[in-house]
Amino acid sequence: MGKKIKILYDANPLYNGVKKNKGRSGIFYVAFNVFKELILRDDVELTLLIDSQFFDDVIDMLNLEFPEYKSHKINIIVGGVSKYYAKLKEKRNQLKKENKKFQKFLLQLFLLPIGIFCKYRNKIRMSDISKYHSFDAFLSPCEKAPSYIKCKKYIVLHDLIPKIFPEYGSISWKKGSWFYDLCQSLNEEDYYFANSEYTRQDFLKHYPVINPSHITTTLLACDEKFKPADMDAIIKAKKKYNLPDKKYVFSLCTLEPRKNLIRAVKTFIEFIKKNNIDDMYFVLGGGHWEMFIDKLKQEITDLGEYQNKIIRAGYIDDEDLAPLYSGAEWFVYTSMYEGFGLPPLEAMSCGCPVITSNNSSLPEVVGDAGIMIDWDSDEQHIEAYEKYYFNKELREQNRQKGLERAKQFSWKKCVNQMVDEVIK
C-alpha cells in the first residue's frame, strides 16, 4: 500500500446526532456518512478536529451510532472554547431574551476575562497544529475552515437558502452566524464540494470569487437502511405513531414555510373532497419551527371536519423511517427550493412513489422516477394526487423507477469523488 492521505476532519456537526430533534437532519447526516466512509478507507489516515464544548456529545454519538470507530486508529485534536465558557454564554443570551439587563451585565463582566483567557489559550494551542501535524487536506462538512489551518481546505456547500430566502432560513443570515461567516470566507484559493450541480451553479452565480475549477459536484446519498420494509415493520411503526389502519400519504421534513406544507395539506383536502375519498389521510413527519407551527395548527383547524385527515407524527426515529416510507401510498415533497433534498431519495430507496417540485436540485435527484410539479400550483398538486390514487399501474411504475434511480446514489461514490479531488 502507498502512502496514506492525511485528512483533518471537522467533526463538530456530529454533536447533533446525540439528540433526537430537528438538529439531527441534513447536515448531520452528511457529516456522519462522510465520516463513516472516510474511516473505512485503507488509504486515508483520519484525524478528527472537535471543539471542547462539543467533545462529549460527539463521542457519545459515535459510541451510540458507530461503535466500530473504536477499532479504527483515528486521532482526535480538541480545540475551541471550554464547555464551561460556552454554557455561560448560553446563560447570558437567555438573560438577554428575558430582558434581565442587570443580571446580564454582571454575567458579562464575569465572562470577559474568561473569554480572553480561553481565546488566548486556544490561539496558542491551535497554532501548534501545523507545527506538530502534517495534513494533506482539511475537510469541513459545512463550516468555514479555521484560520490556523494551513493545509489545503475543502468545504461542503449545501445551499444558499439563508441568503436567498432569509425569511425562510432556519439558519440566520447575519454576522456571527456560521453560515454568514462561511459565505464571507469564500475565496479563489480554497476548494469546495457542492451537494448538487444546482448548488454549484448557485454559489458560482452569487460568489464569482470562487474558482470554478475548485468547486466539484458530489451528489449525496441516503443511508443503506433505506430499503423496502416488510409488512410487520410497517404495522409496528404505524402503531408506534398512532396512525389509523388506512391508506396514507407521507411527508417528511422540518415544518417550515419553505417546505410548502400548507399548500400540500390544503390541496390534499381539496383532492379528497372533490373525489369523495374517505379511506386516506396525510401524515406529517419531522421537527418544526416554533414560529411556524402555530400557523400550521391554525390552517389545519380551519379545515373543519377534515382536520382529522391530517396527522402530525412529529419527530420520527431513524429506525421507523423506512417502514413509514414503505407503507405510504406516495410521498409529497413540493418544496420551494432545495440544495439537494434527501427525503425524496430516501422515499425512492424504500419503493415509495414520489411527488416533488420541478425546481432547484430536485430534478437531479428524482429524474423521471416521480411526478414533478410547480410548487405554487394548487391545481397541479390535486392532479398529481389523482394520478397516483386512481392509477395503480403508475404507482407501481414509479415505485420501480425510483428503486432503480436510487441505486445511482451512494456515500461511497460521493466520498470517492472527494478523495480523488484531494489527491489530484
Summarize the structure in words.
The chain has 424 residues and is an alpha/beta fold. The radius of gyration is 23 Å and the shape is globular. It has helices at 26-39, 52-65, 83-97, 101-126, 129-132, 161-164, 178-185, 197-206, 231-240, 261-274, 290-301, 318-327, 342-349, 362-366, 378-390, 392-406, 411-422; strands at residues 5-10, 44-51, 75-79, 137-140, 152-157, 191-194, 215-217, 247-252, 280-285, 310-314, 330-333, 354-357, 371-373. α1 links the parallel β1 (5-10) and β2. Mean pLDDT is 85; it is low at 81-85 and 123-127.
Highlighted features:
Rossmann fold, 2 domains, 424 residues
Q: Spatial order of the strands in the main sheet? A: 3-2-1-4-5-6-7
Oligomeric state of the chains present here: single chain
CATH topology of the largest domain: Rossmann fold
What structural category do the secondary elements indicate?
alpha/beta
From the alpha-carbon coordinates, what is the Rg to the nearest angstrom?
Answer: 23 Å
**Secondary structure tally: strands:** 13
Distance between the termini: 18 Å
CATH C-level class of the largest domain:
Alpha Beta
Gross geometry: globular
What order do the SSEs take from the amino end to the carboxyl end, as H and E? EHEHEHHHEEHHEHEHEHEHEHEHEHEHHH
Please report the number of helical segments.
Answer: 17
Largest sheet data: 7 strands, parallel
CATH architecture label name of the largest domain:
3-Layer(aba) Sandwich
What's the average pLDDT?
85
Provide the CATH superfamily of the largest domain.
Answer: Glycogen Phosphorylase B
- Give the helix proportion (percent range): 40-55%
Report the β-strand fraction as a percent range. 15-25%
* Integer tally of domains: 2
Low-confidence stretches: 81-85, 123-127
